Each structure stands twice: as structure tokens, then as C-alpha cells.
Amino acid sequence: MEAEKVHQEKNDRTPQLVRGGTAQFVDNRPLSLLSQITQRKENTLDQSGVILKNVWGCFMDKVHQKGGASSEIIQRLKLKRSSSREVIDFTGISKVKSREASRGIYIKAGRVYKIFGKTATAQKEYNETTNVNSNFKVPIAAPVDYYPATTDDTPGKEVGVFESTELKGKFFQLSKGGELGSYVGKLTDNIKLAWGLRALKAARDAKLSDPQGFLEDTGSIIFIDIHTASTPHPTIVALIESIEQN
Question: N or C: at which end does the chain have fewer Cβ atoms within 10 angstroms?
Fold first, then answer.
């Protein structure tokens, strides 16, 4: 039986020549079978308690909707704030890979840590986020902070951290679907509708270029990953006009 198993595994993987003359193996098993294997792996992780969905499940909803950024379990990583020398231990926590934050994103005890290669980049995100909140009343994942820090894997190199509050609810990103419009369109409570309209107008006035965030169970709309441009996102403008006409 063992010999048959080995033989079958060899047949499932066909060598394919790639650039440089090296061979890589291509998995020939049906997609349905591969999906089952992947699901079994995910269930094993879930059951072992390594991935704590109750802590960072909302953020992973965001990750999947933004294109499926991958994650990995960190075996050992400690972050030390340069000013206070406070140490934050991320050991055993999932690192979410990010196009913006080169050192990844971590969620621990209700706080989100977005780690950039440079403090100036973290400061820029902090400045944009606090600016739209203080000047235009855009709802954000407050309180937010930024600071230089070091990590024990590269102790001689300083990184920049943008820290915010973990949000609960349903993620939306206007550039990738109409989740926000569908949500607002179904609101019948006048108070929640007024809150939503106020948040949308703030995003329009602040000229958010890629509006995204969370629709909280309370009815609040909270924006994250703040970026601004010279003109507001057209979908925000159209959504406001649609609400006001109705």
C-alpha cells in the first residue's frame, strides 16, 4: 500500500522545465481535490487554536476582499518602542502581508499594528488620518498613533509603526464593489441614515481617494487606510446624491 501511495504522489506531480534549466513540479490533481486538501489544512489550524478568528477575523475579511493577501504565523517577534522602550510581543500571532506596510500588519488585544520600513511612512499615514478626522470629521479607527520602533529580528534597523483600533463589522471598499451603497440603501432607521450620510459627506469633503472601512453593527461607518486626492471619489458623490434624492 505504501508503494502505491508513493507512486500515486509521483503521478500527481509532473516536472515542468522553467527558465534556467531547473524543474518545478506542477500539481495535476483536480481542483476539487486540492480545494478539499486546503480546507483540511485550514480546519487543522483553526482547531489547534493558532489562528484566533475572534481576534482578527474582521481584518481577514478585509484582506480577502482586497485580493487575498497571504498571512503566516510568526514564531517569534518582539517590537520595542524607541521612546518608552515598551515591548509588544507578536509571537504566535498571524502576520498579514501588506503592499503598503513592508513589515506586515498584526492585530493584538484590540489594536492594529501596521509596520512600515520607515518612520516617515507611518507618520504620513498618521498625518493624513488625523487631518481628515480633525478638519472634516471623517470617522476613523481612533485612537491612532505612530512611533519609531525596533524589532528583535533586525535590532539595528528602526521601523515605523502606525497603530489604530481594531474594528468589528463588515468590510467595504468602494473601488471593489457596492457593499457600502447596498448597506446604506437598506437603512430604514432615520438616525442611522443620518449618521451614514454625515460620514459620507465627511469623506467627500476630505476627498478620500479610495474609500474603505467597516460598517459597524451600531450603524456607524468607519474609514481606514486613509488616502486623499484633489477630487473626491465619484462613487461617494453619487451615493450621497442618491440618498438625498430619496
Answer: N
pLDDT reported for residue 36: 44
Residue 75 has what pLDDT?
Answer: 62
CA distances from 112 to 44, 104, 106, 145, 178 (A): 25, 11, 6, 10, 25
- pLDDT score of 191: 83
* Dihedrals phi, psi of 87, to nearest 5 degrees: -110, 130
Low-confidence ranges of the chain (pLDDT < 70): 1-75, 178, 246
State the residue for C-alpha cell 512600515. 116
Cα–Cα distance for residue pair 117/233, rounded to 1 Å: 29
The owner of cell 475579511 is: 61
- Give the pLDDT confidence score for residue 35 in this predicted structure: 42
CA nearest to 243, candidates 206, 199, 177, 208: 199
Separation between Cα atoms, residue 233 and residue 231, nearest integer Å: 7
Q: What is the pLDDT of residue 106?
A: 95
At 198 the pLDDT is: 94
pLDDT of res. 189: 80
For the record, the C-alpha cell of 98 comes out as 501588506
